[in-house]
Amino acid sequence: MPSPCARETKGPTVPNPWLCNEPAAGSPWWKSAVVASAGGLSHRAAGPRRWTFALLACVVSWAVAPVLAQDAPLPPVTVGAGVQTSFIHDAPDGADATDAFALNSVRLYVNGSPARKIKFMFNTEYDGAGNHVTVLDAAAQFEISDRLNFWVGRMLPPSDRADLYGPYYAHHWATFTDGVQDGYPFISAGRDNGALYWGQFGKVKLQAGAYDGASATGKSKLIGAGRVQVDFWDPEPGYYLNGTFYGQKNILALAAAGQVQDGNEAYNGDFLLEKKLGGGGAFSVEAELAKYDRLGGYSARYGTDQGGYVLASYLFPPAAGMTGRVELLGKFAKAGFRNGLTAIDRDYDQKTTEVNLNYVIRDFNARVMLFYLQKNFSAVQRNDKQVGVGFQVQM
């Protein structure tokens, strides 16, 4: 079966050479995230609505020619899947410790092409915590050229790198637990319904979109979203991103993203450096600063959620007789929660420390991740420590 392409829980969707942007070397085929130009954000409520209509009209006009030109055979429909499962020992302060096996996530990806330069993606996820199946992505994709791409439906809006790689393409195990990563508003697993433009201009990537506000925040005003990214070394082609390339690229990337709705805003800057080392090893640093100001955030009881994190890793060169490679990773984050809804909602800080010892068998397709996670709170929540092992397989 050809490899499909999809990805991301709060996170992945599906790439394949026919249905997605070019995936990173060694990466599987499912990725999901959506990015947009920060410069295109408008603080006027009517702004996203006006250019959304123009965007849709442009999609229709560009789609006419591909629909009529059906000479070459179309690629087959592709199907893929991914699973994350784990064992966790959880020891919260002031409470009994627990041990549990968890089915964190199961994803199914379907992609196809009804006409030349027109594609679709449909991705679902079984959420082990909620024990239900949800629609991750369902979008029509009009991909005219590297610089001209339009998607309409449900997808990951332009946001931070962490949302655009999601748990299946993240570098570490405990994604979206630090009060910083991907605090943008969403319907399900980081997604929202809307329309998106994205374009690749060499080493510069631009994205802009308009999304349904009522389903994501309860407000009827549209959400405008944008992201701009510059790669100074190797480019990262396509819409979706990785948390690492496991030493297959030299990456130095800077990006800014933001979303606005009716005067409320959320924005971030993110950074990724990855350098190949001799013998097949690699060194990586990832960082982000984010502020969710009355839009998104990790707690609905606080108007402001602000913080940052830094992650560093070393991927050891492959050892003789071993199928995979060993990696050591550490991450530290700090977030502050302010402007509570009531007097009893006290301001507090969260500090999160994570350490991983990973065995990378086949990049994102097969890996085993031993992890230690510690969350300390200055108030409101109790401190917590976790030790466990996570397994990820994709095909």
Structure write-up:
It is a single chain. The chain has three helices and 18 strands. The protein is globular. It has helices spanning 46-68, 161-165, 213-217; strands at residues 6-7, 13-14, 78-92, 98-115, 118-127, 132-145, 148-155, 192-201, 204-211, 223-231, 251-261, 264-276, 282-293, 302-315, 325-340, 348-362, 366-377, 384-394.
The percentage helix is: under 10%
Label the overall shape. Answer: globular
Give the SSE order as H and E letters. Answer: EEHEEEEEHEEHEEEEEEEEE
By CATH reckoning, the class would read Mainly Beta
Helix/strand layout:
Layout: E1 6-7, E2 13-14, H1 46-68, E3 78-92, E4 98-115, E5 118-127, E6 132-145, E7 148-155, H2 161-165, E8 192-201, E9 204-211, H3 213-217, E10 223-231, E11 251-261, E12 264-276, E13 282-293, E14 302-315, E15 325-340, E16 348-362, E17 366-377, E18 384-394
Antiparallel strand pairs: 1-2, 3-4, 3-18, 4-5, 5-6, 6-7, 7-8, 8-9, 9-10, 10-11, 11-12, 12-13, 13-14, 14-15, 15-16, 16-17, 17-18
Keywords:
395 residues; mainly beta; Porin; 16-stranded antiparallel β-barrel; two-stranded antiparallel sheet; 8% helix; disordered N terminus
Gist of the model:
With 395 residues, this protein is mainly beta. Helices cover 8% and strands 51% of the residues.
